[in-house]
UniProtKB/TrEMBL annotation:
Residues 187-253 form a coiled coil. GO terms for cellular component: extracellular region. This is Fibrinogen C-terminal domain-containing protein. PANTHER family: FIBRINOGEN ALPHA CHAIN. NCBIfam families: GGGWT_bact. It comes from Megalops atlanticus (Tarpon). Its main location: secreted. The keyword Signal applies. The keyword Amino-acid biosynthesis does not apply. It is found in: Secreted. CDD domains: FReD. Residues 1-17 form the signal peptide.
Length: 496
């Protein structure tokens, strides 16, 4: 503002200098009218006071604005005065214009310097403010960045877990799809098989219907044939009765001859010697002592059993007289039997058989007996084990085994337990093991705790008899997993 006031003072002074050294004459000449001129420059306005034209008509001013005294009394020419006045005004205006330009330049320079200072101060303040704001923003940005990093880490962890779970779900889905595809394939195969089986069943049903019809027809024919044969047989019987009444003597002779022929045939085929029913022997030792020294099948009357028992008598081994109650030679008889079957006996006495626990119990309780066990392996070895005293308990005692006095060549020790072991089968477990030895090792035997022997196990042929724990084994002869070729268990009185 001080610069503006100073400019105005200079402007006014310049105007007064240009307007008249004859200003006093103007004031004395009366009150002349004045004009005000205003110039607007930016935010500032400038006012100029200029004399009117009428107040200058009294004389012709010189270069300083004074009226020429010599020409005062002469009437000035109008045109000359106006030209001089106009020239004076133009010079004045030119001076004023120069002063205004200088003032404007001065004001602009001062204003620029002040504006630069003000702008610098404002910029400094704004810079400080902006720096403070920027610092706060950086602090907040760092905090937000830290939080964003934490959130990003959590999101990454969650994303990785989700990706792992999605991968696992994808793998599970793939597995399920594969299994489903396999199941669908199997179902389609089963459906195809089922359709084929249905077709086969339909074909078989049609065949069966045809066969049933044929069988009905055949049955009718057979019934007719049987009726005719029955009538023929009745006629033949009547004729035979008539002939028999006439030839009774010839019939008796023929019957005797037929009995003799059958006896000879049975002796030649089985090597057995059926004894007449009138001869009763308790065991094979009595039959041997009675003069029967041929090995074969004999009828024995054992204990209080009501029917005679067919048994094989060995009249050759170690002096003969042995009653054989167990024999294995070729696997032709199945020894996987029940308790009752082992009690009553099974098989063929002339081949593979088990005489029966009840018969052995009855026999060994009527006198003191010796047991002999004969063995054969697939290499041709034939050792034996012998026990001087052998006895079985009753069925209530589970046909318990009692032994004493071991000897023989089938091992330095006995492979049979001698402390009263009960007999076990697949349907009657009487062993001393938590498991069921008869199911594991098969057959029926005195297993104890699955034991060292089992002569009633599975029969394995040569080449398949190695590493067979459920075969025919005798531990102290060929070990626990060798299945033997043949066995025989026989008894006779100890005083034979």
């Amino acid at each position: 503002m001080r610069l503006v006031v100073l400019g105005l003072s200079l402007l006014v002074a310049g105007t007064a200098a240009g307007a008249g050294g004859g200003g006093g004459g103007q004031r004395r000449g009366g009150e002349g009218r004045k004009r005000l001129h205003r110039v607007q420059h930016g935010h500032c306005s400038y006012t100029f006071i200029l004399p009117e034209v009428e107040s200058c008509r009294g004389g012709s001013p010189d270069q300083y604005g004074n009226i020429n005294v010599a020409q005062r009394d002469a009437p000035p020419p109008e045109r000359e005065w106006s030209a001089q006045k106009l020239q004076h005004l133009e010079s004045t205006m030119e001076n004023n214009t120069q002063w205004l330009q200088k003032l404007e330049n001065y004001i602009q320079e001062n204003i620029k310097s002040e504006m630069v200072q003000i702008q610098a101060h404002a910029v400094h303040n704004q810079t400080a403010t902006m720096l403070e704001i920027g610092t706060n923003l950086l602090t907040q940005t760092a905090e937000q960045t830290r939080k964003l990093n934490v959130v990003e880490a959590q999101v990454m962890n969650q994303t990785s877990r989700i990706e792992i779970q999605l991968l696992e779900n994808s793998l599970s889905t793939n597995k399920l799809e594969k299994e489903l595809l396999m199941q669908v394939t199997e179902i389609s195969k089963l459906q195809d098989k089922n359709s084929r089986l249905e077709k086969k069943v339909q074909v078989l049903e049609s065949r069966q219907r045809t066969e049933l019809e044929d069988m009905r027809e055949e049955k009718e024919r057979l019934q007719d044939l049987v009726a005719r044969q029955t009538a023929s047989i009745e006629a033949l019987e009547r004729q035979l009765h008539t002939a028999s009444t006439n030839n009774s003597l010839l019939q008796r002779q023929q019957q005797q001859l037929m009995d003799s022929v059958h006896t000879l045939i049975s002796m030649l085929s089985t090597g057995s010697v059926p004894l007449p029913r009138e001869q009763k022997f308790r065991d094979c030792a009595e039959a041997f002592k009675a003069g029967n020294n041929i090995s074969g099948v004999y009828y024995l009357h054992i204990g209080n059993m009501t029917e005679p028992t067919k048994a094989f008598c060995d009249m050759e081994t170690s002096g003969g007289g042995w009653t054989v109650f167990q024999r294995r030679v070729n696997g032709s008889v199945d020894f996987q039997r029940t308790w009752r079957e082992y009690k009553m006996g099974f098989g063929d006495p002339a081949g593979e058989h088990w005489l029966g626990n009840e018969a052995v119990y009855q026999m060994t309780n009527q006198a003191q007996y010796t047991l002999r066990v004969e063995l054969k392996d697939w290499e041709g070895n034939a050792p034996y084990s012998q026990y001087e005293k052998f006895q079985l308990g009753s069925e209530k005692q589970q046909y318990r085994l009692f032994l004493r006095g071991y000897s023989g060549t089938a091992g330095h020790q006995s492979s049979l337990t001698s402390h009263g072991t009960g007999f076990s089968t697949r349907d009657s477990d009487n062993d001393n093991c938590l498991c069921k030895c008869a199911l594991m090792l098969t057959g029926g035997w005195w297993f104890d705790a699955c034991g060292l022997s089992n002569l009633n196990g599975m029969y394995y042929t040569v080449g398949h008899n190695i590493r067979k724990l459920n075969g025919i084994k005798w531990h102290h002869f060929r070990g626990p997993s060798y299945s033997l070729r043949a066995t025989a268990m026989m008894i006779r009185p100890s005083d034979f």
